[in-house]
Every structure is written in C-alpha cells, then in structure tokens.
Amino acid sequence: MEHWTSRLEAGYQRYCGLLFGALALVMVACVLFVGQDVGLSNNGDFVRTMAASSLRFGNQLPSHTYVDTFQIVLPHPSAWQNVLSILFGGDGLANYPSLHVLPVRVSVVLSLVVNKLAGLPMDTYHLEVLGGMYTLLYAAGIGLLLSQFRLRRLWQDLLVKLAALVVLCDIGYVAYFNSLYGEALEHIALVYCAAMLVRVLTRQPTVWDGVWCALAAASYGWAKFFNIPVAILLVLVLEGIVLVRLGRRRVLAAGGAALALLLGVWAIVPGWMDVETNYNAVFYGIVRDVDEDTAKEYLSDLGLPEELSDYRDTNYYLGGLLESLEARGLRDAAESVTKLDLVRFYLTHPGRLWEQMQLTALHCGMIRPYYLANYGGDQPLMSYSQRMSLWSTARDALPFDTLAGNLAVPAAFTALAVLVWRRRLKPAHLALLLLALWGALGYCYGLPVMLNGEGDFAKHMFAFLELLDLLLLACLALALDRAGRGRPEGVLCPAVGGALALALLLPPAWDQAASLWQAGQAHSQLQPGSYVTLGNYGGQPLTWLVVGQEEDRFTLLCQDEAISLPFDEDGGNDWLGSTLRTWLNDGFLDGFSPDHLALLQAQDNTVLLPDHLRGQAQEGHLDFACTHIAVLADRGYDRAYRRQAQDTVTLPDIDLIATLARAGQDISGASYWLETPYCPSDALVRYAARDGHLYFGPAQVARVVRPVVQITGAELSGGNGSRAHPFLLSWAPAVFRLS
Fold it and tell me: What is the pLDDT of residue 22?
C-alpha cells in the first residue's frame, strides 16, 4: 500500500502541471462553450479592435446582448491576399496599437478556415475561435503556475491548487475570453508573470527564464496600455531576481528589450485616449457629485473656466456633449487637461483624493462588469450566467468593497513574506520586492479614478482585482505550508492566515446578524424600522417595513416577494405609461379592506424619465447616470430629467433605495423592480437583486414587485412591530398622533 501511495505521490509531483492545466481547460471550456455560449456584450470598446482586425458588425449594432458572430471584411479577390491583409495590414493599428489585436487577427484567419471546412459563409467571424485560443493559452498558464510550487503535505497542496482553480476559472475572469476586450490577454499574461515570478524565486533560474519573464511582462503591459507602468515594474523585478540569482548579465538583454518595447508602445498611445480619459477624470471624477460652488473652485484650480461647472457629472460619451461644448466655445478648454494636471490636482487636494479612494473601494467587490451581458440569442437583454461563479459570489459578499478589506490581503502577504523569506533573501532585496508589490497595487487601485474618473469603472478596476486575488491565493499557500513547523513561522504564519480569514469573514457575518437583530426588534409605536401588516395578495396578508416618516405620514415598503409581474407588458421603461403602474393603482388595491384603503394617501411622486422622453421633463437638465452600488445610486437625482405625478401605489425608486442603503438597511432580495428606468435605453428598467446591487433588465420580464405606499391616520391594534409580529393597523380618522 505504501508503495502505491509513494508512486501516486511521485506521479502527482511529476505531472501536477499537466493535471491542473487539463482541469483548467475542462473548467473554462464548460463555462464558455457547454450549452449556450457565454461571453461578454459590447459596451462600445469592440469598435477599435474590430477596425484593426478586418471586422465589422454587419447589419446592426448589438446592444446589451452577447453576440458571437461578426462580419469579416474581405476586400481582395484572392484568399491569400485577404489572409495577408488580415494578418499584416496596417488599417486601424494607429488608432489602437495593442498586442490584443494580434490574437484577434489570428482568430479571424482561423475563422476563415472553419468556414471553409464547414461550408459556412466565408465572411462570418466566430468569436468562439478567439475564446478557444485564449482558453488553451490560459490552461497552459495555470498548469505552469501550479507546477512551480508544492506544499509540504499533499492535502495542503491539493487544497491550495483546487482553490486556485476555483478563483482563476471563475466566470468573472474567463467570460472575457469570448469578447474583444483586452482584459482577456492582460489576465492571461499576468498568470504567466505570476508563474515566472514563483519559478525564479523558488528555483535556480536560467537565461531562458529571463527571456520568458521579459515576454510575459511585456505582453501584460502591451495588452492594456494602462498597465504599462506596472509591466515596467514587473520587468525590473523579474529580471533583477534572475540577474541576482544567476549572476549572468546576459539576461539584461531580454529585460532591456522588454523595457524598450514597453516605452515605445507608451510613446505611441493614441492621443484620443488621453482626450477622452482626461475629460472623464475631471467631469466624471473630480467634479462628480459636488455642488456648483465646489465644482467652480476645483475647475479654477485646474486652470479651467468656471462655466464648465455646468458639465459636472457628464462623461465624454454623452450624446450631444461635444456639440454643446462647441456651441459655447468651451470644447478646447474642456479637452486641455493633461495627466500631469490631474496628478497635481490630487496631490494638492488630499481631502478629495481621500474621498475618491473611499469611492474606489466600493467598486472592488465585483469582478465582472454589471453592465455587460453574458448571454445572447433568444435570452432577454442583460442576461447573466451563474456558471462557475462561486468565487465571484463569495468575493462580492466579502468586505472587498472597503479600504480595510482591500488592505488586509497585501498586509497579510507582507507579514507572511517577511516570516518566510527573511532568511532566503537579503533584507534589501526583500524590501525592494515588497515595495514594488505595494507600488503596483497602489497604481492599480488609485490611478483609475484619478486618470479616468468613474468612466467604465468596473472594467478599470480589473487589474487591481486580479492582483489582489493572486495575493490571496499566495497567502493561503504560505499560511498552510508553514503550519506546524518548529520555527516561529510555524505558529506565526497560520496566525496571520487566521487573522486574514477573520478580517474577511467577520464583517459580512456581523452585517447579517445585525440585519436579523434589527428585524426582530419590538417597537412601542409606529416608526421607521417597524413592520406592519396591510392589505393582502392571493389571500395572504402583506408585510411592510416603515422606511420613512414625515409628521404623521409614514412611507411603507412591501417586504413580501409573492407578486411577480412585468414592469410593462409592451416593453416600455417609462413608469407613467407602464402596465404595472396601472395594476398597482387599481387591481392590486382589491386586496385591501375598506379600513386599510382609508389609510392610503396619494403620493407626490418624482418620476425620472428615460433619455428618449426628456422632452416631457418638467424639471432637470442632466442624463441620469447608472451605477450598481446602492449607496451611490442617486447621485445626480436632483438634476436629472424628471416630472411629477400623483400615485397611491408606487415602486421604490432609486432615491429611496439609496437612502435606505446609506442608513444601513438591507435592500437585497429576490430581484425586484425599481421605478427608475435605465435612462440610455427605452426598454430597460432598474432592479435590485439578492446581492444588494442594482442592475437593469428588460421591462417585459417578470420580476418581484415590492410596492410603496404612504399611510396616515393609523391606530395600532396588535403586534409588536417586529418582522415576526408586525403591527396590525386600523383606521382612526380622529387620531393624528400615533401611540
């Protein structure tokens, strides 16, 4: 038996990389290609990649749905001429000189081969071909990474490497493979960088290791221009380690070539990127959600005219923006800001920088962007896939949306690195390594909002999230591997790992306990936070939470999830014309007794309008922006296009939900409609989901309905106001003060 165990362990050690590479291949393939294909929809960024890769959309521009076929441009009569043009043509490269274009071009040629073999139209591009290429590269990278280390005990090694598969094969990462976003190649290159870093730290490196380090780091930076500074840092670190451990200056050639390449790419980054991102950094960042006086002060500090304060909370892609700036003679001024101006502003305004760092933390929980769909075909718009989403779900529930949560992982890794490597590395070398790590993390965390504002924030935090997840896996490996060893690190390393686990697990557990405690609290009078019973649906009484009070008028939000209806059966996203509004103010009230009907009061309802109905607005002058983060969701509400209406029953709107979230109220639940439209569309409506985030989806899909009413003149006739025993109400027309 021991003989076979030894042979199995030896085989595992020898073929570990192949085993986990194969597992990664199967897992990613299952996520992307089993059943209906999964990918990411286009947010507008596909255009620049397609223009450089002989692709176009064809008859229609897809919106809010995943599309896996595009049209190949074949201008030449000869097949070989077309292939050479696709692979080596210069069209579009000046506008987007990214390494990401290379695999896309190769996938276009492979699509031609697929079409020829399968008898399909030759001008059809199959996005799955690119996804398959990336899947193979990624599986090889994961196999390489996991073959570079082995923990002391077999069960520890298996646990860490299976955890790595769960994290790295999560849909939040691999859905990018079936898309034309550069994040796919960036992420694959980072895994190779991590593999090479582990290799040169744990083994005697060779000159070829130096070459592969340089290639991996250069690919990481060239895939996404934002990452070039981090890639330069990676080149210096990786080549420095190889040089110190190998002692051969020949490795400097590879490092020097990589640095020259990265600096050359940085020098030719197209100017339009700076113009767009710098505008967003100012108007969708620095003066985002500030009052007019503060906006004028900040703009003056940037050397910009105060009249531009009218454009706060706008981004560069807003329809009609450039025309408005041109008409007022302000476009040149608005586009005159440089990256140096932005950095100088934040260095001289530390208070605003601190606010932006706190805001950035809120965007660090979710890996995949909430505004990109995973499914296409006959699926409704903005349909998401839950395949292999265990880590995405867990990560979103952990406190990575706080500064403390994001600092806990690198702090723990720093402590573990000092404990484990203090004898292997010279103190100066270890300090430089950790300094480089913190520098890379600081850049990836702070620079997106500083240099691009909140534009495309979810995608721009991707580099930070992937670094943090790799560090978390490293913490798990180091803490487990040192457990039980005789030296001090045998106790201290598991202690650091345990402290990190507590730092990540206790906050959500505390929040859940606080929510349950709050729901179980008894009340002596009707007040915000108490529960009442009012009306019924389907023969069952409805429970409501008191969410607001103004004198003797109370606002109630239904807590039941029994009602499920479309927002509008015709697919419109305007509350005023929706079938749901009609039913709530008519048929829904059939379940209320005369006493309960007498309690209901007409509400002065502020209704935000979708962009296509802005001509009907009675107030406002701003397109309402969308975010998935509830506590930020109502920014710009008081300046958005809106009108007033009278309703007896409404839905929770974005203002109410944001107010409740900021007050610490749990706003999660089975996906339920909000009254607010997704303004850029004429068919999508906002809704709150079980994870506590706000999304948008098609109006004709049935979702939970949680009505909002206002009551006055109520008398308590039973219950204690807790969720389990809500107050019973009766109408008391002579009563003006509740007791």
Answer: 97
The whole-number pLDDT of residue 334 equals 95
Q: How much is the mean pLDDT over the chain?
A: 94
- The 3-state DSSP class for residue 635 equals coil
Q: What is the pLDDT of residues 423-441, one digit of tens each?
A: 888 888 899 999 999 999 9
Q: What is the identity of the amino acid at 177? A: F
Place of tokens 């405690």: 517
User: Is residue 463 within 8 Å of 230, Cβ to Cβ?
Assistant: yes
Q: Which residues contact 245 (CB under 8 A, 6 or more apart)?
A: 200, 204, 205
Of 235-244, 561-570, 695-704, least confident by mean pLDDT is 235-244
Is pLDDT above 60 for 262? yes
For the chain, percent helix, then strand, then coil, each to nearest 5?
55, 10, 35
AA identity, residue 3 = H
Question: Is the pTM value of this prediction over 0.90?
Answer: yes
- Alpha-carbon distance of 619 to 726, in angstroms, equals 39
Which structure tokens are listed for 3? 């003989």
What is the helix (H) or strand (E) element at residue 657, kind and residue range? helix 654-662
Of 701, 696, 700, 704, residue with least CA distance to 64: 696
Residue length of the chain = 739
Q: Where are the domains of the chain?
A: 1-180+370-398, 271-348, 351-365+400-519, 531-731
Q: How many Cβ atoms sit within 10 Å of the Cβ of residue 488? A: 10
Q: Quick one: pLDDT band at residue 573, thresholds 50, 70, 90?
A: very high
Burial of 730 (0-12, 13-18, 19+ CB in 10 A): middle
Q: What's the one-letter identity of residue 343?
A: V
